[in-house]
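Entry 12.
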Amino acid sequence: MADYKDIKGGTVQNFAGDPPAPINGQVWYDSTAVAFQYRSSNPAGSWASGGTMNTVRADFGSAGIQTATLAIGGSPVTANVESYNGSAWTEGANINTGRNSHAANGTQTSALFYMGDDPERTGKTESWNGTSWSETADLTTARRQGGGLGADNESALAFGGETAPVNNLDITESWNGTSWTEVADLNTARVAMTGAGIVTAGLSISARILDAPSPYTGITELWNGTSWTEVADLNTARSDLGGAGTSTLALAFGGYTGTARSVNTEAYNGTSWAEVNNLSLARSQLGGAGIQTAAIAMGGGVPPNTGVSEEWNAPTETNETITI
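Predicted 3D structure (tokens):
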């Protein structure tokens, strides 16, 4: 049997602590800890259990980062809003009009949510200042199941969706903190997509095209602040998925493929999508927030609906002690 020297080309070295730049799989003796140690790496990233929401829901709006998240409204139709602190969910101030099938963006202290069913398609918009929700100017085109993105309650982009059954929208509207303005349309009209990024650099990810022969799609479009450009498709076509990140470093997870709810997770590097480790729980109509290296997936439809959250963490490297 080959020994460590045969495999690595050298003997196990002695260090008072850690080596200056340990590599994955390296073994050494730590004379300070009086133990053999090795470098362990998880290059793919992984999902871990997070806190469970107080109100089980699907088809809701979400905003924030992994450790400071908002879950807004949802189905069954509710006005309930919850905030997440990285370990537990707490109920907060309700939105003024309960609804589902809407979009949202921003942070835990500065958020915007818009469109949805109220119970008909609506353009209603509400702004969150960290304390309360205020109704503001409506979208120009009332709709549901569209996508949204943006940094806070002063800037947002709403795109796609539907105004009635079998009516795909390509309309995009931009929010300036006071009013909505129509800007350049999506290249492909569709519903039930997710978004990532900000109003000057964002992504519209995947979707469903109503009444199409093959309705589920992986279409991804890039927004440069002025127009949309088609970029690489997701590997797994689906709708009603969660998303997080930026226009060049995004994460897409869960969703519905037309035959099943998905656990699939994909990462975008600005050029292409790559499959990475799956969610633990298959679901669609879920919420998503955060960045590519630290995201959260929450709630959704299994069925039945769930309040389960999962946290995505970037590739990690740690030192592990060898027990002899």
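Annotation: Residues 62 and 71 are 5 Å apart (CA to CA). The first helix runs from residue 4 to 8.
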